[in-house]
Amino acid sequence: MDGVMNWLTQDRVGSALVKVLLVGNVAPMLVAFLVWLERRVAAWAQDRMGPNRVGPFGLLQSFADLIKFLLKEDVLPGHVNKAMYLVAPCLAVIPPLVVLALVPFADRFAIADVDTGILAAFAFSGIGVYAIALGGWASNSKYALIGAVRASAQLISYEICLGLAALGVFIVAGTLRLEDVVKMQADGFTIHGETLHGISKFFDWNIVKQPIGAIIFLIAAFAETNRTPFDLPEAESELAAGYHTEFSSMKFALFFLGEYVAIVAMSSLFTTLYLGGWTLFGVENAFEGTTAQTLLQILIFLAKTMCVIFTFIWVRWTVPRFRYDQLMDLGWKRLMPATLAWLAATACVVAFLK
Amino acid sequence: MREPDLNDYLPVLLMLGWGVVFAVGALGASWLLGEKGKKSKYKDRPYECGMPIQSEAHARFGVKFYLVAVLFILFDVEVVFMYPWAVSFGSTTVRGDAPSTALLMWEILAFVVILFLGWAYVIKKGVLEWHKED
């Protein structure tokens, strides 16, 4: 078993392929669980039962849904632009999967450990806009088009805030490699080149050093994944279903899946950047150098990510949807200057304290 | 520190390949297994909640969206510029190179102020006044 783990943590094409297949299959399974979780939490928040018929506690509901998606008629309507209509759902699901390939799940356990780390992750998550824009355009339907135009404007607006908010972390870290960012959050609080000991190790996570940045990153992440209170692209009360109005069966399922994989990807990024990734105040080194250590780190990472994902769901069932001008005002007139000020403040503090 | 190597990106390509296989596989499976329905002229029309279709699908939409896209390009390029800056700033603090740190700090403050002026100009011009009729 230790041999297997050693092999997996080395830089080889074979081990990379195994890890790709592992993550590429676990992520959709996790999404199946998340959809169930979302519906159960929604039910809990609204004081009703939620899905509880298929399997224990309704756990198999998502698989029943999957079978239904597979067996539904695969409609290719005559009024759509066929090539783009088929490419759009694929584009919705591929980029967030690739983002997951860049996240370190444990020590030396990222699928791709690249030095541009976060830039590559943002680059791929940015491609998600194309899925929505193409989907809305190819549908040749006015609700889909309006939804797509709204969504594109929203996504690109909040992408600026996302990038600016995360920048603070990299000013503190001085590297773009996500593994180094994680390790930096576990090596103790440093002021003037001296590491403070004792209780200070509990304050080394970036959420302590970058509280405003973390909050703005989380808000922008809600907007990037089209979650309430920013789910205007598919505001069903105004736009039928927004950009995926014309999509049915598996093509709709891929949009749906892509949205949830994006939530997983954004939550893992948040965990990596602000919550210390796979570290937990030294607990992560409990089984030094064994398989159990890597598994423990993955478990810690998953637990933190699940907490962030729960926050996503929690906010969705708590906060009502914004109006479109409020959404744009929040992004451009509030968050943008706030992130710029925070950026300047971070630069000054780091220059004087490090 | 490891040496940067283009081979590091190979796993990203592998994941991209898996994504394509997954998405195309899902669409293919649905095409193979899905119910074969009858043809109908109603399936070849956009869905507008069952009402007769009014006007063409690719209707005109607000020019504001276009302006937002242009602003995005402007600001996002600035953000991308700041990432290399953050890395070199961070590395000067790690090296303890105080003069460079101070210089880089003043540089980014100037940059942020210029960016802020641009932002203030955009707001002053009313580019983001969504409720006003043009």
Describe the structure.
The complex is a heterodimer of chains A (354) and B (134). Chain A is mostly helical and 354 residues long. Chain A has one domain. In chain A, 66% of the residues lie in helices and 1% in strands. Chain A contains 13 helices and two strands, in the order H-H-H-H-H-H-H-E-E-H-H-H-H-H-H. The longest helix of chain A has 33 residues. Chain A is globular and about 65 Å long. Chain A starts with a helix and ends with a helix. Chain B has a domain of 73 residues. Chain B is built from three helices and no strands. Chain B is flat and about 75 Å long. The termini of chain B are far apart. The interface between A and B is large, with 91 and 75 residues.
Distance between the termini of chain A: 42 Å
Helical content of chain B stands at 55-70%
Overall residue-averaged pLDDT value of chain B:
83
Question: Number of helix segments of chain A?
Answer: 13
Write down the Rg of chain B. Answer: 26 Å
Strand percentage of chain B, roughly? under 5%
Number of domains of chain A: 1
Supply the number of helical segments of chain B.
Answer: 3
Contiguous uncertain segments of 5+ residues of chain A: none
Strand content of chain A: under 5%
The unreliable regions of chain B are none
